[in-house]
Write a structure and sequence with these properties.
There is one protein chain. The chain has about 300 residues and is α+β, with helices and mostly antiparallel strands. It has two domains: about 5-150, NADH Oxidase, CATH 3.40.109; about 185-295, putative nitroreductase (tm1586), domain 2 (NADH Oxidase). Helix content is about 30%, strand content about 20%. The strands form two sheets. Strands 5-6-7-9-8 form a five-stranded mixed β-sheet. Strands 1-2-4-3 form a four-stranded antiparallel β-sheet, sandwiched between helices. The protein binds flavin mononucleotide. Flavin mononucleotide binds near residues 113, 135, 152, 220 and 257. Flavin mononucleotide binds near residues 111, 135, 151 and 219.
């Protein structure tokens, strides 16, 4: 499938068929991603395939996922990384590459956060290395495709559709948006400095309208969509919001996911370039609730 189609198909899947996925298929997906270049060189990222999801589910319940609500899936993939400069963005980028590859092969996935209970998770999953836990992916064949697809699109519902899955307190932003629950492309990109919104026409003139249209379909914690981009000539700066719901770790993982979507779509649109996780001299008036994670150099 073309990458924009894969991005459009991807959803966080929270209900799975009991059917097992061929072990070799998942191993191949992991191998393909492990060989892929990440955002940073020389950072070890590992994936552990948890074949017996049923057993892990029983033990992980209360420990992994929003409010300890683990998603029941036939399998899981545990992601860990060496803790070096830029490792969280890098792991988000590589982890999401796995998600997109799995989507392309007809599998459903959902990221789950691992927070302060990391050592319990490692014990349960029999993880012996010292790498830091990044997240756990549920993986399998999606059940009830339509319902899952509409999770955040249920227009007019007064409660978050997530509550049906046992999450009591997640306020899903933008749930009333008619077509999808994503912010508009007009609210994602600024020109030259913070707050100077790029219109759809200005994005189109730069060949970037499609890029941002698809980029905003990237997953984020609680669908918070924390990203803003500042287009400054050949540099596109990514700033990510911190808020009281997520810690910086999650925000940096989300940044890496966003960087992947941006880069894939940029290349697809014929705009070559690469992300650099470097500090910038210019400040661009980025407000204090946001932090700059890097820039894309065309
Ligand atoms: C870092 C990260 C952690 C997440 N953790 C969870 C989680 O613990 N439980 C869950 O149900 N969904 C989790 N999600 C999925 C988001 O809720 C989902 O991506 C977002 O609501 C947008 O929906 P979509 O992925 O279907 O487009 C997580 C996503 C990310 C990127």
């Amino acid at each position: 499938m073309k990458i924009n189609k894969v991005i459009k198909e991807r959803r966080s899947v929270r209900e799975y068929k009991g059917k097992k996925v061929d072990k070799h298929l998942i191993e191949d997906i992991i191998a393909a991603v492990e060989n892929k270049k990440g955002l940073q060189e020389n950072i070890g990222v590992s994936f552990k395939f948890i074949e017996n999801g049923g057993e892990a589910y029983e033990k992980l319940d209360g420990i992994v996922g929003y409010f300890g609500k683990v998603i029941k899936a036939p399998h899981y993939i545990y992601i860990a990384s060496d803790a070096k400069e830029g490792y969280l963005e890098n792991a988000g980028y590589i982890g999401e590459s796995l998600v997109l590859k799995a989507t392309d092969l007809g599998l459903g996935t959902c990221w789950m956060e691992i927070n302060e209970k990391e050592s319990d998770v490692k014990k349960i999953l029999g993880i012996e290395d010292d790498r830091e836990a990044i997240g756990l992916l549920a993986i399998g064949y999606a059940k009830r495709e339509n319902k899952v697809a509409g999770l955040f699109d249920t227009k007019g519902k007064s409660i978050s559709p997530l509550t049906e899955f046992g999450y009591p307190n997640i306020e899903v932003k933008y749930a009333d948006e008619p077509v999808s629950s994503r912010i508009s492309i007009k609210d994602i990109a600024y020109l030259k400095e913070w707050g100077r919104k790029a219109s759809a026409k200005e994005l189109e003139d730069r060949g970037m309208a499609d890029l941002f249209y698809y980029m905003r379909l990237a997953p984020s914690w609680g669908n918070r969509q924390p990203w803003k981009f500042i287009i400054d000539g050949e540099k596109i700066i990514l700033a990510v919001e911190k808020d009281d719901k997520v810690n910086e770790k999650v925000a940096r993982i989300e940044a890496g996911i966003a960087m992947l979507y941006f880069e894939l779509m940029s290349h697809e649109q014929g705009i070559p370039g690469r992300w650099q996780l470097k500090k910038l001299e210019e400040k661009y008036n980025v407000p204090k609730e946001f932090f700059v994670t890097g820039f894309y150099k065309v």
